[in-house]
Amino acid sequence: MLPGVVSRSRPTLLVLLVLLAARPASAVEWEGALKGTARLLVDTNAPRDFSDGSTPSPGADPALSVLGSAEGRATFERTQLVGRYELGARKYVGFSDEDTLIQTGALEASLALGTEFGLGAEGHAKDRRGGTRAYSDLGASVFAEYAPDVRLALRVRAGARRFVYRPDKTANFGGAELGVVGRYRFDRRHSLSLFGDWGARRYGPLARPRPGASGASSLGRREDGALTAGASYNYRGPVTLGLTYAYQEVTSNSFGETVLRHRVTGNAGVRLPWKVTLLAQGSLGITRYPDGIYLSPEIILVEEDEGQNSLSLKLARPVSERVDLEVSWGLWSTRLPRNQLSYSRQVFGVGFTWRD
Q1: What pLDDT is stored for residue 58 in this prediction?
Q2: Average pLDDT of the residues in 134-155
Q3: Would you give the distance in Å from CA 210 to the centre of its chain?
Q4: What is the annotated signal peptide range for this record (predicted)?
């Protein structure tokens, strides 16, 4: 990323080289921020169970949620380092098996080549422990960026990803990834982004043959191709608005693992009287399984993270210069039409957020 251009950060080993090439510390510009949030929650489906409608709801369960984050930026004459770290935990009263600890880290190093081009490396790591969805997700890549002015920015990246799903190693995969993202600002309020990613995923187990066909040995190991493409529009004015459409296609040589998804996500923020801010976010997805639905560990994981319809609202009001009082509500739901299973969950919360 070119110095002065804002971007999401991810980790890299190039940091040491950048530090060695940087100017003395007196020429460094530093930026940083700390934030912490604590909430009391009521979760109506703490175990995140699917239901066929004939079984009663598992009932609500209270929980305590804490989240801390730190981010920083160091800008030298031609180089820049950007980093972010988050640590979150959730503790339930009655469903201790669903207690979770999540860590995410991201770091990016970039070098400006003149005023328009840049090269760099990025990486990320996410680790979730506890519950029935424990996993680690690691990735690293190198990128080239073109940013001739504040209106246009284009980035192309190539890297690798490793995913480890701890409850079932058959869902582990690794492989190469390619990606591109472009953003154009029409003016200070309107901007449009286009993005696309492709990944080649290779798994350990043999591919599952189609029913009635010969064994999987002739198919070899399971291999997936994952394609994502979409567009995003953002408006910054008296009201903040965002709208994103994404198409995802995972094509597999293993029967039952091919997935097609369309997903629309919208968000909005507005200032209300008495210094209250209202934030809203919603998403609607259409998922199709050409071979039928197989509740593999990977499908269950995707339903948890990104395959659901959702709506969330949050009201925030400052109670001091650095502390906000927050009240939140969220709804998540999805349905598996072929086997009539459905999932629904609401979370109510109240808490405080502190900023440095």
Answers
A1: 61
A2: 95
A3: 33
A4: 1-27
